[in-house]
Amino acid sequence: MRPALIAIGVALLTISVGTAVSFYSVPPTATDHQVSTEVPSASLGPNETRAVLLYGISASSASLSVRWTATGYLTAGLYDAPACSTASPSCAVGSPLALWMHNASGSYARTGLTSYPYLLVLTNPGPKALNVEASCVSRSSTAGAVPVLTMLMVVLATVALAVIGGIGILLGLFLRRGFRSGPAPLVSQGAEDAASIAAASGGGAPTGPRTGSRSSEGEPPRPEPLAPGR
Question: Which value, in Å, is the radius of gyration of the alpha carbons in the chain?
Answer without folding.
Answer: 49
